[in-house]
Write a structure and sequence with these properties.
The protein is of the alpha+beta class. It has a single domain, classed as Umud Fragment, subunit A, CATH 2.10.109. It is built from three helices and nine strands. The strands form two sheets. Strands 1, 2, 3, 4, 8 and 9 form a six-stranded antiparallel sheet that branches. It has a three-stranded antiparallel sheet with strand order 5-6-7, with no helix packed on it. A hairpin with a 7-residue loop joins strand 6 and strand 7. The radius of gyration is 16 Å and the shape is globular.
Length: 143
């Protein structure tokens, strides 16, 4: 049975929805930002943000996370605000790819220079963010 997401993509050729969850912060903020997802029309590459099906707690969920590595048999995917990789995501799991988002009334294309710069910087500093996070968490608890 197709989901709302898949039906919208099939019938309208695109999907616009408000984000839920904090896994793509700071790029996307829960309840504030709208994302536009379109069907995949080309091979996906590193830094693309696909909407994909995944099993969590025995049920199917839809997740919007970033590709951090392309493998011969699938993708390694991670949320911008998470520190674990999801492996084994294949083209068969992917229902669409983010092409734009709207923040505070402003449309941002994933093809824009500002977006591409953000992505490269944010992904480049991932190892540092991963090291600093435990220290930051301890400081927050202490204060």
């Amino acid at each position: 049975m197709a989901s709302f997401f898949e039906n919208e993509l099939s019938e309208r050729g695109f999907l616009v929805y408000r984000t839920a969850g904090a896994s793509m912060k700071p790029l996307l903020k829960q309840g504030r930002d709208l994302v536009t997802v379109r069907p995949v029309t080309r091979p996906l590459k590193k830094y693309d943000v696909p909407l994909y099906r995944s099993k969590r707690d025995g049920r199917q969920v839809y997740i919007l996370h970033r590709i951090v590595k392309v493998l011969p048999d699938g993708y390694v995917i991670r949320g911008d605000n998470t520190y674990f990789d999801e492996r084994g995501v294949t083209d068969a799991d992917i229902v669409g790819v983010m092409t734009a988002f709207k923040r505070k009334g402003k449309d941002v294309s994933v093809e824009s220079r500002a977006y591409k710069a953000y992505v490269r910087i944010w992904c480049f500093v991932y190892p540092l963010r991963k090291l600093v996070r435990p220290v930051y968490s301890k400081l927050r608890k202490a204060l």
